[in-house]
Design a protein that fits this description.
Elements: E1 2-9, H1 15-31, E2 37-43, H2 56-66, E3 69-74, H3 80-96, E4 100-106, H4 114-125, E5 131-133, H5 136-152, E6 169-172, E7 175-179
């Protein structure tokens, strides 16, 4: 069984999204059981709160650095711990090309906190395009597609499946369903 470790970083204000993400990830895990893929989710609520000589956050950062996927969620602000988790994930990614990093911003209120503005600027400077989401269904739809893409490539790279020149495929859940060049359209009218 292949274990894929996911670290989900966000502030307290997105508790509902974290809880829903946990439910959907484990549903996905059950559906991938026959493929021998186990999705292991770490969120800060599940980690130990015991005192650490180096601070609790440094213990959380160990999970971040050990993750295969790092998912960052933000809404009205970016808290200092969530920002630190991103920094650790990015540093690890820069060194090892893992974890794969995904950033999602819930469509924000009319005015944005300075921390959110600064973080979005940082992502722009890194030439990273973040994704917006309107509600949890939108967030899950986007992330679920990313999981399917990664699974199709064995969780080794984030790239589009190769396609023969001129071949046009219709896909569903990253699996080829039809080659539209080979569909007999004579019966369509």
């Amino acid at each position: 069984m292949k274990k894929i470790k996911i670290f989900l970083a966000s502030s307290k204000e997105l508790k509902l999204e974290r809880e829903q993400m946990e439910i959907e990830i484990y549903r996905k895990c059950k559906s991938w059981f026959d493929r021998e893929i186990f999705l292991h989710l770490d969120i800060w609520e599940d980690l130990s709160t015991r005192m650490s000589v180096t601070g609790s956050q440094s213990e959380y950062n160990k999970y971040v650095k050990d993750a295969d996927l790092f998912v960052f969620l933000a809404f009205s602000k970016v808290g200092m711990y969530t920002a630190e988790e991103f920094e650790n994930a990015f540093g690890q990614f820069h060194t090892t090309q893992k974890p794969f990093i995904f950033t999602y911003f819930k469509n924000s209120p009319d005015s944005e906190d300075e921390s959110l503005i600064e973080f979005k600027k940082k992502l722009k400077d890194l030439k990273h395009f973040y994704s917006g989401f309107s509600d949890f269904n939108d967030l899950w739809n986007q992330f679920n597609k990313e999981l399917d893409r990664l699974e199709a490539d064995g969780f080794t790279e984030n790239k589009r499946p190769e396609q023969k020149t001129g071949e046009k495929n219709i896909t569903q859940n990253a699996e080829k369903v039809y080659n539209i060049d080979k569909i007999d359209t004579a019966n369509f009218s």
